[in-house]
Design brief:
Strand content: under 5%
Number of strands: 5
Helix content: 55-70%
Largest sheet: 3 strands, antiparallel
Radius of gyration: 28 Å
Number of helices: 26
Structural class: mainly alpha
Low-confidence stretches: 428-443
Mean pLDDT: 84
Strand order of the largest sheet: 3-5-4
Length: 443
């Protein structure tokens, strides 16, 4: 088959809206497209991105994977074609074969990462529009979510990913009935890294937890990296709660046993850091960091480790506010492991300004007095916070109710609960029985 025949077939089948036959034809044409990289530009010029979206997309994917690093002009031209295609492509054709657009985004992301942040930032807007094209609802997850989060993290341009990360996912968009689990893990891993960079540690902890606790028959390197950061972020979120620390920080009961069996032994440096942190001993924590500094540097987690070290001092101060009403700065410095009253005073001033504690420092006698929370919980801001929480709870309840109704009305659930066996189940059971009988006879 020549490329002219390919163009004619794409044009004819697209005009007839015969997308099933068109997809079958495109699958058979992959070898032809790969063998003729120099002529694919002519093919792209012959097809309309809007009218012949699937055919144009197949040629664009083949051409994009053949661009060399020393062809900047060709790369810029293809970037323009990708940008224009995602904007004008036919939604019906794309939804008929969503994996084709996902493949384009995966290859585009891989090429952009190789070319560095200055060029990669150009692909963010393309991926944002691609996600919108592939999403069934605003809370559905597509394979392109992971690519978008990766580019945003690499280029340190984090804001475009936040609208997607802030949406609570309740649906996974399957492509041809399948969804590669690696894109789920990468989405939550990169999302956790983005929230950690923005110091939204509660949300980051949730994302890392989802990545680590995803049901699996084998652990992956993605889960390993997420577990390392999960421990560090857990200290930043729950480190000042000694009584409930273990309950808050431990993984949920539904976590796969493989996590404890395989991941924990590979994270001994982080386990030692957690133990030193919970011992409430600044010298012990510094010793653990110094001992495993090479490991933390190789894992690119030294930034979080430094924040953990700073957090231990502040956590110790917060715990002391629940025990003492008045302390001298010198005594407070000794209790939290700082070398001088001046250092602890600087920490106190910073915490008071941030609103994390209520205290007064007397410069005259070097004493600090801890106050209870003066908020009467009757301010307009507190009322707005309460209303926002109630609205979020109502919205979540509606989503859960809707998903429960959808599940209970699904034919598969009805058959399962009623005990009805389908013809396929009967056939499967008969095959299994025949197999078992054969095994028994042979033994």
């Amino acid at each position: 088959m020549s490329l002219d025949q390919f163009v004619n077939a794409v044009t004819t089948l697209s005009s007839q809206a015969n997308y099933a036959e068109l997809c079958d034809h495109l699958n058979k044409s992959q070898e032809v497209l790969q063998r003729n990289p120099g002529q694919l530009d002519r093919v792209l010029d012959s097809l309309e991105p809007c009218a012949h979206s699937l055919g144009y997309l197949a040629a664009l994917v083949a051409r994009l994977g053949q661009v060399g690093d020393n062809e900047p002009e060709l790369w810029n031209d293809l970037m323009g074609k990708c940008d224009n295609f995602v904007s004008v492509c036919n939604d019906d054709q794309i939804r008929f074969s969503p994996n084709s657009l996902s493949d384009l985004c995966h290859i585009l992301t891989s090429e952009l990462v190789k070319r560095g942040p200055a060029i990669a930032i150009r692909g963010i807007s393309i991926l944002v529009r691609a996600v919108r094209k592939l999403q069934v609802t605003s809370t559905s997850l597509t394979p392109v979510h992971a690519d978008l989060a990766k580019l945003c993290l690499m280029t340190k341009c984090l804001s475009p990913a936040l609208p997607f990360l802030d949406a609570d996912i309740n649906l996974i968009c399957r492509e041809n009935g399948q969804f590669d689990a690696v894109y789920l893990l990468l989405y939550y891993y990169y999302g956790g890294c983005i929230y950690a960079a923005l110091k939204k540690f509660d949300r980051a902890l949730f994302f890392f937890e989802v990545c680590v606790t995803t049901p699996t028959a084998a652990v992956s390197h993605i889960m390993l990296e997420a577990y390392k950061k999960y421990q560090l972020v857990g200290l930043l979120v729950h480190g000042d709660k000694p009584k409930s620390f273990k309950d808050n920080f431990s993984l949920p009961k539904f976590t796969s046993p493989l996590v404890g069996k395989f991941l924990k032994p590979l994270c001994s440096a982080y386990s030692e850091l957690v133990s030193a942190y919970t011992a409430n001993n600044q010298a012990e924590l510094r010793a653990a960091v110094t001992k495993h500094q090479e490991v933390f540097t190789a894992d690119n987690t030294m930034g979080l480790v430094r924040q953990v070290m700073s957090s231990q001092v502040r956590s110790s101060i917060r715990r002391l506010t629940r025990t003492f009403i008045t302390l001298s700065l010198a005594d407070l410095a000794t209790r939290v492991g700082l070398s001088s009253p001046q250092e602890v005073e600087a920490e106190l001033v910073s915490m008071i300004q941030a609103g994390s504690i209520q205290a007064r420092i007397s410069q005259q006698d070097g004493m600090v007095s801890f106050d209870t929370n003066p908020d009467s919980f009757s301010s307009p801001s507190m009322l707005g916070l309460l209303e926002a929480g109630v609205s979020a709870a109502i919205c979540l309840d509606r989503q859960v109710t809707s998903m429960e109704e959808e599940m209970m009305l699904s034919p598969a659930y009805v058959k399962k609960t009623s005990g009805t066996r389908t013809e396929e189940d009967e056939e499967t059971g008969n095959r299994a029985g025949t197999f078992n009988n054969a095994v028994s006879a042979s033994s």
